[in-house]
From TrEMBL:
Gene3D superfamilies: Umud Fragment, subunit A. Residues 2-44 form the Peptidase S24/S26A/S26B/S26C domain. This is Peptidase S24/S26A/S26B/S26C domain-containing protein. It comes from Neisseria elongata. InterPro entries: LexA-like, LexA/Signal_pep-like_sf, Peptidase_S24_S26A/B/C.
Length: 51
């Protein structure tokens, strides 16, 4: 599965996955429960029609 999310590290070491689309609420992610998670890239530009 592949998601494009903003990542916010929490004080307890977990991550908060945040979507730019407000329809999708932030998803907490405890790394201890999901040790196989990999960050495989970085979005560096977004292009869209502004009309």
């Amino acid at each position: 599965m592949l998601w494009v999310k903003r990542i916010q590290r929490q004080i307890d070491g977990s991550l908060l996955l945040i979507s730019d689309n407000a329809t999708y609420p932030p998803m907490p992610l405890a790394l201890a429960e999901h040790p196989d998670i990999q960050i495989i890239g970085q979005v560096v530009q977004v292009s869209k029609d502004l009309n």
